[in-house]
């Protein structure tokens, strides 16, 4: 089993335990808006992953230099710099994807996943752990968006990654490539995940690896900002010197 803070643990955490979309329900705007196809979902996910990993790494490296009072503006400047680089690279080398993603590329700057990981993890941990935390969260986000986009594309167009997979007689459900389709697919996938977890728990299986983010009732939680279930155990991390 991977040690807390190790590369493997950070990757597993981002992809499974604290998946940004299916567990933490963060970054819903691009999740619902750009997943009209599997390719769009994969493109947005990987772009976000690169920005997330690199910004985590730089913020962690500068965490002892950046004054606490201006840390949020500093984080935003760092994130915006990487988003600009990725926007220019997509515009130059992948113009079709750039046009498909449109305004949601510059909006990565204000994606709560990136700023949240910068504040909650990168600003308090080593460069190595922060880098893989960003990669893990980015891969989890990419997998979720690609999965949602694939389902919407198959049902709404009979294709996946532009390749026809349904018979010619298939009549596409065009609503799935429209705005409501994103809500239907996200809700269905989340429901399936919950059903699998509940069914496993009833059979006495260890289902802690599925959707094991914070399961507390936040509305009635009295812990406020000291919640130990959010992102990671702050006290434990500080005690271990990470």
Keywords:
single chain, mainly alpha, 2 strands
Summarize model confidence as the mean pLDDT.
Answer: 85
Number of self-contained structural domains: 1
Q: Portion of residues in helices?
A: 55-70%
Outline the biggest β-sheet.
Answer: 2 strands, antiparallel
Please trace the helix and strand order, writing H or E for each element.
Answer: HHHHHHHEEHH
Widest sheet, order of strands: 1-2
Secondary structure: number of strands: 2
Q: Approximately what portion of the residues adopt beta-strand conformation?
A: under 5%
Shape estimate:
globular
- What is the CA-atom radius of gyration, in angstroms? 19 Å
- Structural class of the helices, strands and pairings? mainly alpha
pLDDT < 50 runs, ≥5 residues: 215-220, 222-226, 228-242
The helix count comes to 9
Euclidean distance between termini CA atoms: 19 Å
Layout of helices and strands, plus pairs?
Blueprint: H1 7-17, H2 28-33, H3 38-61, H4 71-93, H5 95-101, H6 112-120, H7 127-157, E1 159-160, E2 163-164, H8 179-202, H9 234-239
Antiparallel strand pairs: 1-2
Question: In words, what does this structure look like?
Answer:
It is a single chain. By secondary structure, this protein is mainly alpha-helical. Helix content is 58%, strand content 2%. Strands 1-2 form a two-stranded antiparallel sheet. α4 crosses α6. The two termini are 19 Å apart.
